[in-house]
Structures are given as C-alpha cells and as structure tokens.
Amino acid sequence: MKFQVYNPVKQNCDCVIRTFMKLLDKTYVSVKEELISLASNLGYESYQEQEVFEKYFEKNGFTKIEEDPAIVNDLSFDSGSYGILCARGDDYHLFPVIDHTAYDKNDRFWTMDVVSLYRLEK
C-alpha cells in the first residue's frame, strides 16, 4: 500500500468526513450534513460514533469485512475502495484506501491496530 497526502479542505476536517469525501467523491458540506442527520436519526449526538459511520458505510454500498487482528502496515487486499478504522490505545482513526493507495493528511496510521475494514461492493 502506498500513501498520498489528502487534506482537501481548510476547515477543521476530521478523519470521518475526510474519509467519506474521498471514498464517495462528495463535498465537505454534503458529507457533514448527511452524517449529522444520520446520527440524529439513530439517536446519537455525534457522527463520530462507530455505529453511525458504520451505518453510513452501509448506506453507501460498503460491507464490513472480518479480518484477523493485524496492524495497518500488514494489510493486504484486492484493488477497490476501502475504509479502515484503526487504533492505538484510545486513539481511533479512520482513513480511505483506493486501489492500494492510502489517503490522509499524514501517515501516522501504519503501526496502528486494525479495528474494522469496510469494502465497497461492486
């Protein structure tokens, strides 16, 4: 997997919004509004809850993949579009991978533990 810097907006754009902007080719405003609405409909105060963004993945054609425990650097998968939720202790992070390229504002994720992997179904 390669890495490419991706930080598309000047606003304080968190990893959840940045991930969906890249994977879905949507604007900051549309992703944020859709996530806030979904969180509210599901009874959550924040779209950063895993249950909320997992539902958003599902609504946009992604499936959660069961993976053996690994660190991000050890992942190997087919071409396509993926969302990767990883963690180091209490520090959680979500980022997109498209055709073996990880997109994020920095590459701090390589040694983080994989929590969940989401794949866009064709």
Short characterization:
With 122 residues, the protein is α+β, with helices and mostly antiparallel strands. Helix content is 28%, strand content 30%.
What are the segments in which pLDDT stays under 50 over at least 5 consecutive residues?
Answer: none
Class based on secondary structure composition and strand pairing: alpha+beta
Count of domains: 1
* Cα Rg: 14 Å
| Helical coverage, percent range | 25-40%
Strand content: 25-35%
Mean pLDDT: 93
The order of strands across the largest sheet is: 1-5-4-3-6-2
Order of helices and strands: EHHHEEEEE
Number of strands: 6
How many separate helices? 3
Instruction: Report the span from N to C terminus.
Output: 21 Å
**Sheet with the most strands, sense and barrel status:** 6 strands, mixed
Overall geometric form: globular
What does this structure look like?
The chain is an alpha+beta fold and 122 residues long. The chain has one domain. The chain contains 3 helices and 6 strands. It has a 6-stranded mixed beta sheet, with helices on one face. The two termini are 21 Å apart. The mean pLDDT is 93.
